[in-house]
Backbone:
RNA sequence: CGGGGUUUGGCGCAGUUUGGUAGCGCACUUGGUUUGGGACCAAGGGGCCGCAGGUUCGAAUCCUGUAACCCCGACCA
């Protein structure tokens, strides 16, 4: 259709330039815009509303597991940051420093938190005395700052919003269990609420968090086949506890070190939602987190009491759903495209013909399928359609991922797949960091994770041919 | 931090080669006609040409410096 052409002019087609498509979507849908500070973005109302919905869902789930919210300072004294060796080495290159308070030079410079392990540890060392004080299950919603070399909206910005959970436990088993539980929680939120299928697994030594004994991750695949680490959960063992002196007296009156975890999900997940679900017409938002679940478009709204009827419908539906009525004097066609671009899952058209027949038209954002439904049971029909869309989006994302996942037995095969079509490659690995590095140098692909669900592709490492220890997902990543 | 590109009303661009005081489309405002896939007519408003120096009677245009953004690599959520 000729009109469709005009529509896509404003959004670069994915197939032409995926990166430009991503930037176009963000700008056109008004998710965020650049600010006066390099790499820092203004998250606009529509983008922030998505974050708020994710927050609500996750916060509720955290609390169901006994987690409490707290707020930590945004500054970390340099000496505190340096307490744990691996941690400071990991983060020091990318921290911002505060050197002055007013006109006075500070006696010790303060780092703007890149993550808050050290603050939580310092606090825990002050408040934990007895096994009766454990576990501590804290979380905070905040922003952190990392002076990244290159930035991209949502995916990598200098300052970003996230939640960081930090827990302290009496035993290693408890900490390990918590680490896995939170990873499962993240995976469940991604799959059930955001309609993003994920692969759960463990990061290799090389890819794990600075200071952790083990890092678990959920990896998702974007529409272009690239991987995005979408959430992580770390087990710290007692490493931080030893560095910060976090000890408690156990039941036998003996001093013990606590075992800790931390886990986080950031606004990067919004980037995942955009890149997993979107298409050339714009965003597609999963109904469960869409700020607007259905938009009502009046047709010929100055005729036959259309406007009044659509207002009535809005008041009726907003008791159950997040709905918007667009009664601006833009043409209906403009509105159709606009709300598709903004990813609103369902469009409800209501015009004189519909009013005459006591019906409305529901249009599915995923496939533009139209259904005529009676006003009598509109609530049920809308709920069914939203559920259906949620499922369709998950299925489509899963299909895309599976279609771009392959396995390789030989190194030539491996290199060929990575070079031709980006995506996940399942291949065996000997466990040696040398091979990981070589693969990265040869192909730019990195180990995404050692999945919990192992398969045996072959007996030997895809790179060096030595006996294999694990099956690993490899891929190019954001 | 390396290699490449861009920067001119809100957005997208032309103008730069050959210096002469800024233009187009969309968006915006007002009025009217419209409305089932980005409507039409008419009248308006809006730009220290990224920033700082320099050359010149005169700079968006030439020279120097600098910043931001985008893409490709190295580092990360």
Residues:
């Amino acid at each position: 259709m000729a009109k469709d052409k005009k529509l896509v002019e404003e959004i670069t087609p994915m197939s032409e330039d995926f990166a430009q498509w991503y930037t176009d979507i963000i700008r056109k849908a008004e998710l965020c815009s650049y600010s006066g500070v390099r790499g820092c973005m203004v998250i606009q109302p529509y983008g922030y509303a998505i974050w708020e919905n994710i927050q609500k869902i996750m916060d509720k789930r955290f609390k169901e597991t006994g987690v409490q919210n707290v707020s930590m300072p945004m500054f970390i004294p340099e000496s505190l940051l340096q307490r744990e060796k691996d941690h400071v080495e990991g983060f020091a290159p990318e921290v911002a420093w505060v050197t002055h308070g007013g006109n006075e030079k500070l006696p010790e410079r303060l780092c703007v938190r890149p993550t808050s392990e050290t603050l939580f540890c310092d606090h825990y060392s002050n408040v934990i005395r007895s096994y009766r004080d454990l576990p501590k299950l804290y979380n905070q919603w905040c922003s952190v700052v990392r002076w990244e070399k290159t930035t991209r909206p949502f995916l990598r910005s200098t300052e970003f919003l996230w939640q960081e959970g930090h827990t302290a436990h009496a035993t290693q088993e408890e900490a390990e269990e918590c680490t896995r539980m939170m990873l499962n929680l993240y995976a469940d939120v991604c799959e059930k609420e955001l309609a993003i299928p994920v692969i759960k697994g463990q990061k290799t030594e090389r890819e794990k968090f600075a200071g952790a004994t083990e890092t678990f991750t959920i990896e998702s695949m974007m529409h272009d086949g690239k991987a995005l680490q979408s959430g992580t959960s770390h087990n710290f063992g007692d490493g931080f506890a030893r560095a910060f002196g976090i000890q408690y007296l156990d039941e036998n009156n003996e001093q013990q070190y606590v075992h800790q975890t931390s886990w986080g999900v950031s606004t990067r997940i919004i980037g995942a939602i955009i890149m997993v679900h979107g298409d050339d017409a714009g965003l597609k938002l999963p109904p469960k987190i869409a700020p607007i679940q259905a938009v009502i478009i009046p047709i010929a709204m100055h005729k036959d009491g259309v406007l009044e009827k659509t207002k009535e419908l809005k008041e009726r539906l907003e008791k159950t759903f997040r709905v918007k009525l667009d009664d601006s004097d833009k043409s209906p066609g403009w509105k159709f495209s606009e709300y598709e671009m903004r990813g609103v899952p369902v469009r409800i058209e209501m015009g004189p013909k519909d009013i005459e027949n006591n019906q409305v038209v529901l249009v599915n954002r995923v496939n533009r399928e139209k259904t005529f439904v009676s006003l009598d049971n509109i609530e049920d029909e809308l709920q069914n359609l939203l559920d259906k869309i949620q499922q369709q989006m998950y299925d489509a994302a899963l299909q895309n991922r599976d279609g771009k996942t392959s396995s390789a037995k030989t190194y030539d095969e491996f290199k060929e797949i990575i070079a031709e079509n980006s995506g996940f490659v399942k291949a065996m690995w000997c466990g040696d960091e040398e091979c990981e590095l070589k693969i990265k140098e040869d192909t730019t692909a990195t180990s995404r994770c050692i999945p919990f669900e192992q398969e045996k592709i072959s007996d030997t490492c895809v790179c060096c041919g030595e006996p294999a220890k694990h099956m690993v997902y490899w891929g190019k990543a954001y």
